[in-house]
Each structure stands twice: as C-alpha cells, then as structure tokens.
Amino acid sequence: MKSAPLNRSGVDPLVGGRFDDRHRQVGHLRHALKTLSKTRFKKQDWSKGRSKEESYDTIMCLSVTKWIHLNGGDAALKSFFKKVYSSLTPGGLLVLEPQPWRSYRSAIHKQQTCNVPFRRIEQLQLRPDGFLTFLTDKVGFTVVADLNAGNTAHHFDRPLYILQRPYDGNAMLV
Fold first, then answer.
1. Are residues 108 and 74 in contact, defined by beta-carbon separation less than 8 angstroms?
2. Tens digits of residue pLDDT in 69-126
C-alpha cells in the first residue's frame, strides 16, 4: 500500500502528524511490544512461596493487602512488604493499592470470609493509612507517585501508589 504524499509542512494529509513523529511512535510501540513479550504473569500465594532476591522489576499489589492482613495479621503483612522489597531489583517498582480500613469491617462480616483469623480487627495495629510510613521508614521504599490523589473518577476512591526500591540498597528491613 502506497502512502499519501506529505504536504509542504511534512504532515501526512490522510493520517495527520509529521512523518518523523509517526515513525518514532512506531519504533516506541515495537520496543514496548518486544519488552512485553518477555513478561511473565503468575497466579499464586507468592507471600508463602520462595522467591529469588532482586528478581522482579515491578510487583503489582492490587486489592490484596486486606486479605494478607486479615489472614496473617500485622506480622504477615509486614513480612510481605519486606519480601516485596527484597524481591525487587534496585530501582524496581511496587504498585500498591491498599484497601481502606472501612472495607476490613465489611469483609469480616461476609459469610465466605468468616474463617479469617483476625475477626477482631482491633488487634491489628498497622492500618492502611500507615502503610506508606511503614514502607518508607521501616522497609526503605521511596514514594514515586500517588496516582489517585484527590481523584474520585469513575467512583474509584482508593489510593494507588508507586513506590521504588532505591538504587543504593540502604533499606532498614526491621
């Protein structure tokens, strides 16, 4: 298929945009697809399994902190966060979506979750609003972004954070 000739300003009249810009975008897209072809997704209870240190570039933790917390308490959640840190490569990212504390109360009243050990959630001392402080002060992460700060678009009002394991590796891991 033959491309339409560019007009005097170098803009393709059928597609729009400069030819050089489109060519560069195609190059970026090819690179992204090549990178994604190396991505592996796993479904497992990763917190209890073995993991090679510094083996992940990104770990996504979406809507799971509450369940780790309710099933294993503060100790399990802290251990999970430390494992995430040690599993990330230096400069690696944690994408974290903690559920709000109010959702803990509703979770323990649902029939299918009655077996969670921490039905008395007042025993839990680490709260979702304290996760960032724990992750930065005790584990060693740095906060890169708060992607949902003040945004309640589409009725999604949970925080979504991106945290990074620093390149220097000076974590506390207490």
1. no
2. 988 889 999 999 999 999 999 999 999 999 998 888 888 776 555 566 666 788 899 9
Domain that holds residue 26: 9-36
Q: What's the total number of domains in the chain?
A: 2
- Please tell me the distance from the alpha carbon of residue 38 to that of residue 35, in angstroms, as a whole number: 6
Phi, psi dihedral angles at 104 (to 5 degrees)? -65, -45
Together in a domain, 32 and 108? no
pTM recorded for the entire structure? 0.69
Query: Token digits for 132?
Result: 């960032």
157-173 per-position pLDDT tens digit = 678 999 999 997 554 55
Same domain, 96 and 136: yes
How far is Cα 61 from Cα 45, in angstroms, rounded to an integer? 12
CA-to-CA separations, 90 to 47, 108, 169, 170, 174, in angstroms, rounded: 20, 37, 7, 10, 18
C-alpha 55 chain-centroid distance: 16
